[in-house]
Amino acid sequence: MRRQNVLAIFLLNLSISDIFFLLTMPLWINYYRHDHNWELGEISCSIAGFFYYSNMYISIYLLCCISVDRCLVVTYPLRSKTHRTSRYAWVQCILVYIVVAALHIMVLINDNLKDAHDDKNKNDRCYETYPMEEPVALFNLIRVGIGFLLPLLVLTVSYWKVLATVGQSPGLTAQTKRKVRLLSFGVIGIFSVCFAPYHILLLVRSLVFFQSDDISPQGTYCLFEQKMHFFFSCTLAMSSLNCVVDPVLYVLVSNGVQEEARLCWRRHKRTQTDTDCALTAYNRGKSNNNLI
């Protein structure tokens, strides 16, 4: 990665965030393995939750940084050249880390994890407090607005301008246009598959909470949460897939990685062809010997 490669700096920070999240995966695996029973204490739950949700929104905002950067490069290539420096990229990444971390530290301070005790099953849950409390529901609406709808608007406008400009530019080669399209659809695909289902259900759950008058254990709200729990857990798991698909972005934008992949594929095909030819020659020789 070259120091002046702004896009590579964004992707590097995306990878760093993913690594911190992956370090907490054994804790979450243990949690779900014991049927949503957190046996490791409140501090470890706070740390795991902090890295989980921080990674989600750091990834979302870094994807926004990538989309705006691509939009400026394609739409205003000369004007943006003076501002696109490594310092510019690092400042943006650090600001994203600070803002997201500060918001989630406030959540940790105000969140009472002791309330997440399941009296019925005699176990402790981690960030699964039922019924939802009003401050939590309000914060969820803010998360959906600032953490999903606003980035979705930024991504849509940025890549709409990128694709429109690239399509009308006669000076770009077909390979360059293809690379820009791949990056555009790759970012939008990651955002849609990983983050959209979770935030849609989060919005629905919060709106149902504000519309419900009865939050007793036998009330309509609790019955709704029971039905939605499995699906919401699935969308939460889908949001973790960004750690898996983020490296795809690096492949889409890195000519070096693409070339290495092509070379590996050619070597594999060549080796397979040579092996097939050797086996064919051996079988023919064996058949001729049998005829003699």
UniProtKB/TrEMBL annotation:
Keyword Transmembrane helix: yes
Topology versus the membrane: Multi-pass membrane protein
GO biological process, one term: negative regulation of G2/M transition of mitotic cell cycle
Pfam family, one: 7tm_1
Ranges in a coiled coil: none
InterPro entries, per database record: GPCR_Rhodpsn, GPCR_Rhodpsn_7TM
Keywords from the named record: Cell membrane, Disulfide bond, G-protein coupled receptor, Glycoprotein, Membrane, Receptor, Transducer, Transmembrane, Transmembrane helix
Domain G-protein coupled receptors family 1 profile: 1-250
PROSITE patterns: G_PROTEIN_RECEP_F1_1, G_PROTEIN_RECEP_F1_2
Subcellular location: Cell membrane
GO cellular component, as recorded: plasma membrane
Transmembrane segments: 7-29, 56-76, 88-109, 141-162, 182-210
Gene Ontology molecular function, alphabetical: G protein-coupled receptor activity
UniProt similarity note: Belongs to the G-protein coupled receptor 1 family.
Annotated protein name in UniProt: G-protein coupled receptor 4
Organism, scientific name: Collichthys lucidus
Lineage: Eukaryota, Metazoa, Chordata, Craniata, Vertebrata
